[in-house]
Amino acid sequence: MSSISIATASEVFDLLRDDLAAIEQEFSRQSASNVAVITDIAQYLIAGGGKRIRPLLLLLSAKALGCTSHSRIRLGAVVEMLHTATLVHDDIIDEADTRRGRPSSNTTWGNSKCVLAGDWLYMQAFSAALEERNFHVLDLLISLTQQMVEGELLQIEKLGHLINEEEYFDLIYRKTACLFKVSMQLGASITPHTFGDPAEIELQLGEYGRNLGLAFQIVDDVLDLTATEDVLGKPVASDLREGKATLAVIHALERGTGADREAIRTVLADRSFVQVSHPQILEILQRHGSIDYAMDTACAYAEAARQSIADLSLSDAKRALLWVPGFVTSRDR
Fold first, then answer.
1. pLDDT at 49 over 90
2. Averaged pLDDT of the chain
3. What is the rounded CA–CA span in Å between residue 298 and residue 289?
4. How far is residue 227's CA from residue 236's CA, in Å, rounded to a whole number?
5. Integer-rounded Cα radius of gyration of the chain
6. 170, 321, 295, 141: which is closest to 220 by C-alpha?
7. Inter-CA distances, 1 with 83, 124, 313, 322, Å
8. Is residue 6 a contact partner of residue 323, using CB atoms and an 8 Å limit?
């Protein structure tokens, strides 16, 4: 892998600029409804931006295999619609007030309208995907949606409880990595293969997405603990306040003193920092090297993502796919 030059951020942006702009337009077009409030909520969410990393992965996957059809634009909008629908529902479940530095949609329109707008976005994503007339595409998207819903339900059941690493990785696979994986698989599934075994290529690209998604969520969870609110765009330590034990916290629980464990348990059970402060928790995590442990784990998954596309033919898209894991592990929001 060392003999291949990894793309720069500006090279990746230049490579995808037109396609990403086309996906924004497609997302906007697909989100227009005869019921004005649905369009208003959808447009507000689109304007909120985000990294667009899932459509970016789909585009790179398709590009690496030589796909030039409109399918990549349509399905790029589909994965972003599905992601946006999950964010709407997540904000309602988590009773979030802010998202990406702005009021969350449920703060503006209320829970009832936002639940239904999220449902509508899910169905609109499937309606758009149906235009592909491709059963495999639908199969991937249905399985994905079930996994994400199961992940959300499992997480709700575990709120306030201590979980182990195995349970944590199962949760973040369902909630995050599964969509990264399917985004990569969709890029492969719409490409007519002229070389190699299509199933094997899709498997390798899916493995890249899975590893990258796990790295992405671990970093997200670390940032939730360590970043500042103005950088993160939402309240810090939200996970602990919601009763969620993430990787660094699980690590500290397994290695901490009785007093350390009791402090962490108190925050998880109280879902507040009234009895134990956020700086106290951070001190415990730092003392046991738990933040470093989580980041090292994220970097290991990022490297596994790079390794999983070792057999992919060299192209600008492959060089870009080698850049993404570094971006994921070095971001500050």
1. no
2. 94
3. 14
4. 7
5. 20
6. 295
7. 31, 40, 12, 9
8. yes
Name which of 44, 148, 54, 149 is nearest 99 in CA terms. Answer: 44
pTM higher than 0.90? yes
What pLDDT score was predicted for residue 3?
64
Choose between 49 and 284: higher pLDDT: 284
In Å, what is the CA distance from 100 to each residue of 1, 48, 116, 235, 325? 35, 7, 22, 10, 22
**1, pLDDT greater than 60:** no
Q: Rounded CA gap, 38 and 22, in Å?
A: 21
How many angstroms separate the CA atoms of 184 and 182, rounded?
5
Number of C-alpha atoms within 13 angstroms, CB side, residue 23?
28
pLDDT digits (tens, 9 = 90+) for 141-157: 999 999 999 999 999 99
> How far, in Å, are 112, 311, 332 from residue 220 at the CA level?
28, 29, 9
Instruction: Extract the tokens encoding 321.
Output: 């796919």
The bridge status of strand 102-103 relative to strand 98-99 is antiparallel
Confidence (pLDDT) at 56: 98
The identity of residue 114, as a single letter, is: C
Phi first, then psi, for residue 197 (nearest 5°) are: -85, 115
